[in-house]
Specification:
By secondary structure, the protein is α+β, with helices and mostly antiparallel strands. It has a domain of 82 residues. 19% of the residues lie in helices and 18% in strands. The strands form two sheets. A three-stranded antiparallel beta sheet has the order 4-1-5. A two-stranded antiparallel sheet has the order 2-3.
Length: 131
C-alpha cells in the first residue's frame, strides 16, 4: 500500500520579529549585509541589512531592528566574530544612538571600503585606451 509523502516543513526565512519584547538597532557596514543564525535555535534567523540596502546613495551602514534576546545570545556566542570586533556590525538602543556610534566608528576599516582612485597601479581609463 502506497503512503502519501509527508509534507516537509517550509524552510525558515530570515525574520527580525521581536520575540522577547525588546529590540535593539543594529548597524551593518558590510556592503551585502549578513544572515545571523540563532546559536541555540538555528531555525531562527535574522538578516542584517548592509550598507548597499540603503536608499541613500553613499550611506555608511544599513540598519535593522533585531530582537534583544536574539542579539544578546548571538553576540555572546560570537564575540570573536571579525565583523563584530572590527565595528563592521554594531548596536545601539535606537536609530539616533546608532548614528552616534556610527560616527565614532567612521574611521574603522572593514576591508570593504572602495579602492582609492589613485591607488598604486590604478590609472583612470581614457579615450586613448580603447581597443
Amino acid at each position: 500500500m502506497a503512503t502519501a509523502p509527508k509534507n516537509k516543513a517550509a524552510p525558515k526565512v530570515a525574520t527580525n520579529v521581536a520575540v522577547g519584547g525588546t529590540s535593539v538597532t543594529i548597524g551593518c557596514k558590510l556592503p551585502h549585509g549578513i544572515v545571523l543564525d540563532h546559536p541555540l535555535d538555528p531555525s531562527k534567523k535574522v538578516e542584517l541589512k548592509g550598507k548597499n540596502s540603503s536608499l541613500i546613495i553613499g550611506a555608511e551602514y544599513g540598519t535593522t531592528e533585531v530582537d534583544g534576546e536574539f542579539w544578546e545570545t548571538w553576540k555572546t556566542v560570537h564575540a570573536e566574530f571579525p565583523a563584530l570586533r572590527s565595528g563592521a556590525i554594531f548596536e545601539a538602543a535606537n536609530a539616533s544612538d546608532l548614528a552616534a556610534v556610527a560616527a565614532e566608528l567612521k574611521d574603522e576599516a572593514t576591508g570593504f571600503e572602495p579602492m582609492a582612485q589613485n591607488a598604486q597601479g590604478v590609472k583612470p581609463a581614457s579615450q586613448d585606451d580603447k581597443e
